Amino acid sequence: MTSVPPTSPAVTAPPVEPRDLEEAARSALPAEVYDYIATGSGVEETLAANLAAWRELALAPRVLRDVSRVDVSTTVLGTPVSSPVQVAPTGYQRLVHPDGELGMATGAAHAGSLLALSTRATTTFDELAGAAGPWWLQLYVLRDRDLTATVVERAAAAGARALVLTVDTPYVAKKARSTAFPPAEVSPVLVPELRARGDEGVWQDPGVTFADLAWLAEVSGRLPLVVKGVVRGDDARACVDAGADAVWVSNHGGRQLDGAVPTARGLAEVRAALPDDVEVYVDGGIRNGRDVVRALALGATAAFVGRPAVWALATGGAAGVRDLLVTMRADLEETLALCGCASLADVTPDLLRSANPGDWAGAAGGSHSAQR
Ligand SMILES: Cc1cc2nc3c(=O)[nH]c(=O)nc-3n(C[C@H](O)[C@H](O)[C@H](O)COP(=O)(O)O)c2cc1C
C-alpha cells in the first residue's frame, strides 16, 4: 500500500466506519439537526436507492496480479489528490460543529482531498483562507444575479479552483423528516450580502438554463465549470456543449426529486454519453472503498461524500474529517489490491457484475475504455 502522503499528519485514530459515525453523530447532535442532515425528500425512495444501487454491483476480482504496491493518487481537473474520495458541498456546517467549514476544510486538506464549499457556507472566505487545501465553490445561481456575480468573483479572488453549479435545486424539495430547518439564525455568510435578508433575491433562481453557463464562465474569469446534479446522458452532453468542463452525477443525496434514478445508474448513462476525456464525478451513498471502486469502474474520476463528512465533522471536528478520508483511502487501497488492481488505471468496467441474474450470461461489459 502507499503510505499516507506527507501532507497528512500520522493517523492514530482507529479505523472509522461511516455507519458508526452516523450513530455517534445522532447521539451527539440535537434531534432536529440530525434529522435535517439525515433526511431525504418525499418518502426517501431515492435516499435508500442510492445506497442499494452500489451494492447491486458485485465485484469480480482478478487474481495473480502483482499488487505488492497500490497507488490510489490521482488528479481532479488537474489538481493532484491523494485518492479519488473528495468532500461534497453541504450547507450550514456550523450547525454541527463550532469550526464549521473551517474544520471541514482543514480535515480535507490534511487528508490530501479536495473540498467543495457550499454557497450556503456559514464561514467567510477570509476565515477559510489559511486552512483550505484545494477547493471549489459550489454555486447556486440566485434570483439576484448581481449577488451571484459577487459571490463568483470573490470566490475566484479567494482561490477557488473551479465553480460547481448545482442544477438539481430550482426549488428546495420538501424533506421527509425536517420541516423548519435550517433555522434563520444559522445564516450563510460566505459573503456578507448572502445573509438572509427578507426577500427572495438570495433564493435559487428556478429560471436558470444551459444558456447561463457562458455567463458564469464570463463572470468567473473562466474558472473551470462543473455542473452538479445531472443524471441523464442527454443533459450531460448538453452541459458540455454549453461549456461545462466536467459533469457531476448527483441527485443531491436523495434530497431533491424523490424517485430520481440512483446515482450509480445515472453515472453509467452519463459516462456513456460523454467523450472519454471529459471528467465525470459522482456522489450519493458512497460509504466505503468498495463503493468507490464501483464508481470508478463505471467511469467516474472521483467520488464525493456528503453526509459521512458531516457526521465526521460533528463527532471529531477537523481531525474527524481527516480520519474519515484517510480511512476511506486505506479501504480503497485494500479493495483495489483484493481486486487485483495496482492502480486506478486498472479499474475497468469488467470488474463489475450485475446482481440481476438475467444479465449474468453476458458477464463483463462496459463501453468506456480506461480510467483517467
Ligand atoms: C445536510 C446537507 C446539505 C447539503 N447542502 C448542499 C448544498 O448546499 N449544495 C449542494 O450542491 N449540495 C448540497 N447537498 C448535497 C451534497 O452535496 C451531496 O450531493 C449529497 O450529500 C451526496 O450524498 P451522500 O450524503 O449520500 O454522500 C447537501 C446534502 C446534505 C446532506
Can you walk me through this structure?
- Mean pLDDT is 90; it is low at 2-13.
- The strands form 3 sheets. Strands 4-11-10-9-8-7-6-5 form an 8-stranded parallel sheet.
- The radius of gyration is 19 Å and the shape is globular.
- The protein has one domain (18-345): Aldolase class I (TIM Barrel, Alpha-Beta Barrel), CATH 3.20.20.
- The chain is built from 11 helices and 12 strands.
- With 372 residues, it is an alpha/beta fold.
- Helix 1 (18-28) packs antiparallel against helix 11 (307-338) and helix 8 (233-241) crosses helix 9 (263-273).
- Flavin mononucleotide binds at residues 37, 50, 88-91, 118, 120, 138, 166, 228, 250, 252-253, 255, 283-286, 305-307.
| Fraction of residues in helix | 25-40%
Write down the CATH topology.
TIM Barrel
Rg, alpha carbons: 19 Å
Beta-strand portion reads 5-15%
Distance between the termini: 20 Å
Mean pLDDT: 90
GO molecular function: FMN binding; oxidoreductase activity
Organism: Actinopolymorpha rutila
InterPro entries: Aldolase_TIM, Alpha-hydoxy_acid_DH_FMN, FMN-dep_DH, FMN_HAD, FMN_hydac_DH_AS
Binding site for glyoxylate: 36, 140, 252, 255
